[in-house]
Amino acid sequence: MHQVDSITADPHLRLVWPQWQGAGTESVRSLAPEFPFDIARRGYSVGTKVLQAVLPEHDGPTAIVPVEMGDIGLEEHDGIEAKAVVLQQLRSALAIISEHEPARITTVGGECSVSIAPFSYLIVAVARPLECVGRDTGSRVAFLSSRPGAWRGCRGPSVCQASSAVSWWTS
């Protein structure tokens, strides 16, 4: 992995990751009670498609993290819903990111856990604290930092632009 110094350094990876499995059953049922559960739980993947349609083009590669859309891997393990499939998708995302060695990452789609792979990669690549600005669909804005005790107001990224500065929007 190479050292990243500049916020404008290339390449800028757009990581499309429509992960829905990390949204727990209770959360999905409470956030979308008007929809049948099997439809509502896949709502994050729909949000990914909407974001892809409205975001402007960018310079750099686009990669898609493969996401299981069926019921494979949804079982609870160690008290965690869908642990197996979420961990598999996390491994896939980390491999894709490492292959591209980006200086910046924009993550499009998914629920909160899709931030783990970009942040994990960049915290090492940047070798200094990440500064973050986040916005979700409720128009809440959070200013975040990788410095100890600085993570506050985070509801989780869906579009995460990360380098030495990180910003994101949720679907």
Folded structure, characterized:
By secondary structure, this protein is of the alpha/beta class. It has one domain. It has 5 helices and 7 strands, in the order βαααβαβαββββ. The protein has helices at residues 25-31, 37-40, 43-54, 83-100, 116-126, and strands at 12-16, 62-64, 104-108, 131-135, 141-145, 159-162, 165-169. A 7-stranded mixed beta sheet has the order 2-1-3-6-7-4-5. The radius of gyration is 16 Å and the shape is globular. The model is unreliable at 2-6 and 137-171 (pLDDT under 50).
Q: Number of DSSP helices?
A: 5
Proportion of residues in helical segments: 25-40%
* Contiguous runs where pLDDT drops below 50 for at least 5 residues: 2-6, 137-171
- The side-by-side strand order for the widest beta sheet comes to 2-1-3-6-7-4-5
Draw up the topology in text.
Blueprint: E1 12-16, H1 25-31, H2 37-40, H3 43-54, E2 62-64, H4 83-100, E3 104-108, H5 116-126, E4 131-135, E5 141-145, E6 159-162, E7 165-169
Parallel strand pairs: 1-2, 1-3, 4-7
Antiparallel strand pairs: 3-6, 4-5, 6-7
Give descriptors for this structure.
171 residues, globular, 19% strand, 5 helices, disordered C terminus, alpha/beta, 30% helix
Task: Provide a concise account of the structure shown.
With 171 residues, the protein is an alpha/beta fold.
